[in-house]
Amino acid sequence: MTAAQGLRVVQAPPQLLVQDLGRYGWAHLGVPPSGALDPASLALANRLVGNPEGAAGLEILRGGCVFAAQGSVRIALTGAQLPVRVDGRPRAWGAAISVGAGQRIEIGVASAGLRAWVAVAGGIEAPVVLGSRSTDTLTGLGPPAVRAGDLLACAGSPPPPGDGDATPPRQATGPVVVRVRMGPRADEITPDALRRFLAEEFVATESSNRVGVRLRGASGGLERRSTDELASEGIVTGAVQVPSGGEPLIFLADHPVTGGYPVIAVVDRGDLSRCAQLRPGDHVRFTETRGQVPTPPAAPAP
Amino acid sequence: MRALYRRVGAEALLVEVADTATAQATYRVVRRLVADAAVTIDPPRDLVPAARTVLLDGVDIDGWRKVLDAHAGAIEAERASSSPSTGRDVILPIRYDGGDLPFVASTWGCTPDDVVRLHAGARYRVAFCGFAPGFAYCTSDLDVPPTPRRTEPRTSVPAGSVALAGEYCGIYPRAMPGGWQIVGTTPVAMFDVTQAQPALLQPGDRVRFDPIGHRIP
């Protein structure tokens, strides 16, 4: 490993963060899990370059970034299908790309989806905080957001290349369908609100971020049965909470560990990938699942 | 009341109990079962106590329901025990210089000096953490009316502020916006990620305040 190996950030997108698979086991101290919003996509990018699945990579919001390779590096891009060029020549999304020393990597803007992940062979160096290199936007734990001028060094020697994961592109048309299991507090909203939750389309709003996707209903908020305050209780990633205004929100990786509004449903882990890609204005529909939905850890969605 | 089990998605279990003391006891018993390797089932990836619930995240839901049912007696005994099985004793130095002492006094129907005397004399227990890393919600043996939050939250509460809201006493681990009523300040760091145990106060810990620079009336 040479000290200079890595990526120099020439131009940063609206949000560029170091993320791995998150910091678990500290929720009882008030520490959110954080980590890549679509763990499967980061794990896939890591496998493509030969890294362990949990190596730290980059999470790109919307796209539009330029890197200069320091030394020769191998990278892979997954998640939203952003166009990528090396010294002006188009290169493959969803595959390992070899980049020579000094070459310029340009990652364009997504035509669909919202977030992409870049793995670098060897992983990205950043201080480990409570077991993770992830930036937690809610609490400020982990490294600061990446800015133009930063050098992202490789954490270790580049491993031999991975051996050919297939990278299925997403062909989303129409509203995004998200599978949920109802509960633990579905009984806190009215039967009519419950029916509307599963029947109507919701629209992702501009105030969505890594903490959660905020939604607006077609016919107003979801009404509570009573206005009684609910004691704060633990929250999981994917929890669909109904705050006082009745507009549901889907909690993502930087969610607070507890919340005082009812959680009426929980998104299946396999569908969190879709939630991470919701743009403001995208339509979402919830569908109830009861049976065992296979949720393989960090496997690419079929 | 028996514990009420609520499924949270495919891999989390919310255990709802009658009160904060039972939630604390449930949390401590699960911690102990895992620490002592007394159960063969995989431990929760995260275990989150709260006011009247404990969340077991990343678990075999049905398996853990059986474990909790099998240990209902142990949880009841833990709740009733005067020497709970886990938790450390922590003494926090405090300066009673909080700007909200007069408000708390009016809520409690006493003088600010009485608030200091009562607050410093009480025994506290960390019920749960949340709000921010290392922010501990402490319950106490004080018999006083609940303290309302400020109607206008402060845009920045200094780190180390000891503050009250509802039935809880909490310490702000870092500067942040907040609406709790501030009674004092502690110079001790509440959250330090370089430590093996980053939070000074953890669920189950017993806490007392030791006044500095203040004569207890």
Structural class of chain B: alpha+beta
Radius of gyration of chain B, taken over Cα atoms and rounded to an integer in Å: 18 Å
Order of helices and strands of chain B: EEHEEHHEHHEEEEEEEE
The oligomeric state of the chains shown is heterodimer
Fraction of residues in H or I helices of chain B:
10-25%
Low-pLDDT regions of chain B:
none
Instruction: Kindly report the average pLDDT value of chain B.
Output: 93
Q: How many individual β-strands of chain A?
A: 20
- Strand percentage of chain A, roughly? 25-35%
Strand order of the largest sheet of chain A: 12-19-16-17-14-13-20
Count of DSSP E strands of chain B? Answer: 13
Mean pLDDT level of chain A: 91
Helical segment tally of chain A? Answer: 3
Low-confidence stretches of chain A: 293-302
Would you list the SSEs of chain A in sequence order as H and E?
Answer: EEHEEEEEEEEEEHEEEEEEEHE
Please tag this protein with its features.
heterodimer; A: 302 residues; seven-stranded mixed barrel; 20 strands; 31% strand; B: 217 residues; four-stranded antiparallel β-sheet; four-stranded mixed β-sheet; 5 helices; 13 strands; 29% strand
Overall description:
- The complex is a heterodimer of chains A (302) and B (217).
- Chain A is mostly beta strands.
- Chain A is 8% helix and 31% strand.
- Chain A has helices at 39-49, 191-199, 272-276; strands at residues 6-11, 15-19, 57-61, 63-70, 73-79, 84-86, 89-91, 96-99, 104-109, 115-120, 151-153, 176-182, 201-204, 212-217, 233-234, 239-241, 249-251, 258-259, 263-267, 283-288.
- A seven-stranded mixed β-barrel of chain A has the order 12-19-16-17-14-13-20. A six-stranded antiparallel beta sheet of chain A has the order 7-6-9-4-1-11, with no helix packed on it. Chain A has a five-stranded antiparallel beta sheet with strand order 2-3-10-5-8.
- With 217 residues, chain B is of the alpha+beta class.
- In chain B, the strands form four sheets. Chain B has a four-stranded antiparallel beta sheet with strand order 1-2-4-3, covered by helices on one side. A four-stranded mixed beta sheet of chain B has the order 5-13-6-7.
- The radius of gyration of chain B is 18 Å and the shape is elongated.
- The A-B interface holds A 24-31, 33, 129-130, 139, 141, 181, 183-185, 231-236, 238-239, 256-258, 263, 266-269, 292-293, 295 and B 6-12, 14, 27, 45-55, 57-58, 128-135, 191, 193, 198-199, 202-203.
